[in-house]
């Protein structure tokens, strides 16, 4: 019995020790390795953040060079322009008008030079025979020349018959067709044409006379461009000297008239103009209304 009690006491003591150990273990939680789990969790967060940072840096490093890559030089280079060759115009040679010598008519000292290419114009000046002149121009058929002392047309230029000069340089082929304007008179007005009529190829022009002093009076000048043989030709009609296949008639009613031949068959229209003439020159002209030819 006593032994049994000893065993019971021993068992009770062992149980007490075990219980005390268990209680002691429950009373000291500091020794629990919980921080190891927390450390592992922190480590995973840092690893994720580091991974994100690395990913951002790598993305920036890769994308920046691709975005800023320059365009290849061959695509952006401006082609070299083809050089332009500038042609320098050659200098135009200065025209040297032909030189002519006034030969005139044998036995005379001077040769007449006129205001226009016809003896129907006013006499302008007498050129000394043997004088050298410059031929500046000509009329269409080359029967008259414009001559002057210098190489340019001046107020002293006049018309001379081609047959009255001798070429020492150049010729008719070197001369342009030229027209000289008639000197205007400020003393008297231009005549007024009051009628024109046609009878077949004959045109009659009538006009009112201009009163002038007897000393000034030199008549009238009519310049016509009329159709002859299918070609438009220039025919001046002067009432000062001679007349060219025309007749001047002074009518009783106090008007002047002249008949002009103008045939059909020209593609260009005929025309005419009239001046009054006095010793100082020509008045301004008046255009003449021209009746058309009937085919």
Structure explained in plain terms:
The protein is an alpha+beta fold and 295 residues long. Among the domains are: 76 residues, SH3 type barrels (Roll), CATH 2.30.30.40; 96 residues, Immunoglobulin-like, CATH 2.60.40. Helices cover 22% and strands 31% of the residues. The chain contains 3 helices and 16 strands. Strands 6-5-4-1-7 form a 5-stranded antiparallel β-sheet, with no helix packed on it. Strands 10, 11, 14, 15 and 16 form a 5-stranded antiparallel β-sheet that branches. It has a 4-stranded antiparallel β-sheet with strand order 8-9-13-12, with no helix packed on it. The radius of gyration is 62 Å and the shape is elongated. About 20% of the residues have low confidence.
Feature tags:
single chain, 295 residues, alpha+beta, SH3 type barrels, Immunoglobulin-like, five-stranded antiparallel beta sheet, 16 strands, elongated
What is the strand and helix layout of this fold?
Layout: H1 2-27, H2 34-67, H3 73-76, E1 99-102, E2 110-114, E3 123-128, E4 132-138, E5 144-148, E6 158-161, E7 165-167, E8 192-199, E9 202-208, E10 217-228, E11 231-238, E12 248-250, E13 256-261, E14 271-278, E15 281-282, E16 286-287
Antiparallel strand pairs: 1-4, 1-7, 2-3, 4-5, 5-6, 8-9, 9-13, 10-11, 10-14, 12-13, 14-15, 14-16
């Amino acid at each position: 019995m006593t032994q049994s009690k000893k065993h019971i006491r021993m068992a009770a003591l062992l149980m007490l020790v075990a219980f005390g150990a268990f209680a002691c273990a429950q009373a000291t939680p500091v020794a629990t390795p919980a921080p190891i789990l927390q450390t592992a969790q922190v480590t995973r967060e840092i690893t994720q953040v580091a991974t994100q940072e690395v990913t951002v840096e790598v993305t920036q490093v890769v994308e920046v060079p691709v975005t800023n890559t320059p365009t290849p030089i061959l695509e952006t280079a401006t082609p070299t322009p083809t050089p332009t060759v500038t042609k320098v115009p050659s200098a135009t040679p200065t025209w040297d008008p032909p030189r002519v010598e006034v030969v005139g008519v044998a036995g005379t000292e001077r040769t007449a030079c006129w205001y226009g290419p016809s003896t129907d114009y006013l006499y302008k000046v007498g050129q000394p025979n043997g004088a050298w002149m410059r031929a500046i121009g000509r009329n269409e058929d080359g029967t008259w020349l414009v001559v002057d002392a210098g190489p340019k047309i001046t107020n002293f230029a006049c018309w001379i018959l081609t047959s009255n000069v001798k070429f020492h340089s150049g010729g008719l082929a070197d001369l342009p067709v030229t027209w000289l304007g008639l000197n205007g008179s400020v003393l008297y007005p231009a005549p007024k044409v009051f009628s024109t009529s046609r009878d077949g190829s004959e045109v009659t022009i009538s006009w009112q006379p201009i009163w002038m002093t007897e000393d000034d009076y030199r008549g009238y000048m009519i310049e016509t461009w009329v159709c002859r043989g299918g070609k438009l030709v220039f025919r001046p009609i002067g009432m000062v000297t001679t007349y060219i296949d025309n007749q001047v008639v002074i009518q009783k009613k106090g008007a002047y008239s002249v008949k002009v031949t103008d045939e059909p068959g020209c593609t260009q229209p005929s025309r005419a103009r009239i001046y009054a003439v006095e010793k100082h020159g020509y008045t301004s002209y008046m255009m003449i209304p021209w009746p058309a030819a009937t085919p």
